[in-house]
Each structure stands twice: as structure tokens, then as C-alpha cells.
Amino acid sequence: MAKAAQNPLDLSGRRILISGGAGALGRAMVSRFLDFGAAVVVNDILPDDAAAKALPAHDRLSYVRADTTDEAEVERLLDAASDLLDGLPDTVCCHAGVVEAHPVQRFPVQAFDRIMNVNVRAAFLLARAASQRWIDRGEEGQLVFTTSWVQDVPWPEIAPYNASKAALKSLTRSFARELAPYRIRANAVAPGIVGAGMAKRQWDTEPEYRARAQRAIPLGYLQPPDAVADVFLFMVSPLASYLTGSVLVADGGASLYPMDEDTVE
Ligand SMILES: NC(=O)c1ccc[n+]([C@@H]2O[C@H](COP(=O)([O-])OP(=O)(O)OC[C@H]3O[C@@H](n4cnc5c(N)ncnc54)[C@H](O)[C@@H]3O)[C@@H](O)[C@H]2O)c1
User: Fold this and answer.
1) How many of the other CB atoms lie within 10 Å of CB of 165?
2) Number of the ligand 1 atom closest to the C-alpha atom of 25
3) Which UniProt keywords are listed (predicted)?
4) How many domains does the chain contain in total?
5) What digits encode the pLDDT tens for the residues 60-69?
6) What is the tens place of the pLDDT at every residue in 87-120?
7) Is residue 10 included in any domain, yes or no?
């Protein structure tokens, strides 16, 4: 009898750590990873009780509160994750991110620093620490960064965020290039304008943002969080095993053209 094909999305036995995993997109990703068999450690800055409310109760899910902008906290997070997972995570999703919108000429410098700190520095610290541990133990590993379509197309009023995602795209490629000899892969997923989390907050509270976003998505609707989670599922799965240095744009076509009022019908 012919052997049934193995499910190429099967994550059984896999150990995944995700920063910022209690947020809107993170929760969708975590559910996908659990559904496909992985053990998952979620990191966020939320207090334990708030995280417990945000996340599903699951025997393969644990939560570790830590601020990933802090070097010592990142080491503590990796120690805790390794204990909880019974081994180093094989996949680390550097996913935490923040946004704030202001006209570029008035962008508060504190907000600039905060955005760079979380979106770039924290991702760098987590990726660096995980990579060092994989190399020390001679283990393979995989980094998955969360960038955004605005890495390539500057969305108005979030200049530091655009720049942070461009920096993260570059970091993805640097980690991929330097660490390939250690069999450490680094890729990124660049979502579009998602109907959840930070974009949904702006959609709900900023009429100008909403009008612009409605014009900007060729597919014509906000990206469902599950559609983002599907791409991350592919990225962490064996199907993506030959990918390194790849930035997978999944944005409903948003990055196909500029969205300024006078250039969009
Ligand atoms: N929502 C979108 O449209 C969209 C589009 C493209 C990319 N993204 C990216 O996806 C990621 C998640 O965004 P989201 O929409 O789910 O936002 P979100 O605000 O719902 O989630 C972000 C999470 O990161 C956590 N966080 C912030 N600082 C942290 C720190 N120092 N250490 C650990 N955790 C921290 C927050 O507490 C929050 O739970 C971000 O990197 C964001 O840039 C979002």
C-alpha cells in the first residue's frame, strides 16, 4: 500500500519562541503554530494575568513576561524558554513592534527612540542571543522577523516605523548571510495593512488613515490576521527549508504602487 504523504506543515516536536506574541497578529500566529503541533513560548511585556486573558489555554503554550529591549531580559527569556520547552527553541520569531503616527517634521524624538528600540534593537538583541546559543551548542536554528510592506513604500506619518522595518529587512539579510555556515536561517514576513492590532487601531481612530488605507490595497480589503498567520506557518514549516535571506511580502498588493491622493484614482 502506498505510504500516505506526510503533512509538510506538521510542526510536531518543534519549539517556537515568539516575542510580542500576545498582540493581535501574534495571537493568530500562536494559534496556527499550536494547531499544527508546535510547542510555543510566548513573550510579551503584558502582566501574566493580561497575557492569560489574551492567549488560549493550551498545554503546549507557556508565557514569559520580558522586555526584549533589555539585553539581560533577553537572556533571561531564552533561559526560561529553554526550560519550558525542554531545549533551546529551534525557531525564534522576533515579532514585537510598536507604531506611532505624527507628521515627520513634528515627530517626537522620544517616539522615534521608542520605535527604534522595540522594532530594531529588541529584534536584534533576541536574534543575536538565540544565534549565539545555537552556535555554542552546534544546533541549527531559524529566525523569523516581522517587517511590513512599508519597509519599501513609506506610509505617511510613520517615518520612523517605515525606517525601522527597512532596517529589520536589512538585518534579516545580514543574519542570513553571516550565519548560513552555521545552518542558521533568517527570513522575514512583511504583512500588509491588517484588520487587527496597530493598523486596526489607526483605522478605527484616524479618519485620514482609514481613507488612505481604503485606497491603498489593490485587493480592496484589510488583511485578515489569519492570512498573516498562514504565511508565518509556511515560513516556519519544512516547506520553507531552503529559504534564507528571504523577505516574503504578503500585502494584498499594497506595495505595488504609491498611495498618495494625487497618484491613486
Ligand atoms: N497590524 C498591522 O497592520 C501590521 C502590519 C505589518 C506588520 N505588523 C507588525 O506585526 C507585529 C505585531 O503587530 P500587531 O499589529 O499585532 O500589534 P500589537 O500592538 O497588537 O502587538 C504588538 C505586541 O508587542 C508587544 N511588545 C511591545 N514592546 C515589547 C517589548 N519591548 N518586548 C516584548 N513585547 C513587546 C506589545 O505588548 C504587543 O502585545 C509588529 O512587529 C508590527 O510592526 C503589523
Assistant:
1) 29
2) 16
3) Oxidoreductase
4) 1
5) 999 999 999 9
6) 999 999 999 999 999 999 999 999 999 999 999 9
7) no
- Domain of residue 144, residue span: 15-251+259-263
In angstroms, the Cα distances linking 130 to 127, 238, 264 are 5, 20, 43
CATH of the domain at 68: 3.40.50.720
- For the Cβ of 198 lying below 6 angstroms from any atom of ligand 1, the answer is yes
Helix (H, G, I), strand (E, B) or coil at 244: coil
Mutate to test the pocket of ligand 1, among 198, 203, 217 (most ligand atoms within 8 A of CB): 198
For a mutational test of ligand 1's pocket, the pick from 17, 19, 25, i.e. the residue with the most ligand atoms closer than 8 A to its C-beta, is 25
Cβ of 138: how many Cβ atoms within 10 Å?
8
List % helix, strand, coil for the chain (3-state, nearest 5): 50, 15, 35
Ligand 1: which atom is nearest the Cα of residue 225?
1
**Residue 7 domain-assigned (yes or no):** no
Whether 115 maps to a domain, the answer reads yes
Residue 6 placed within a domain: no
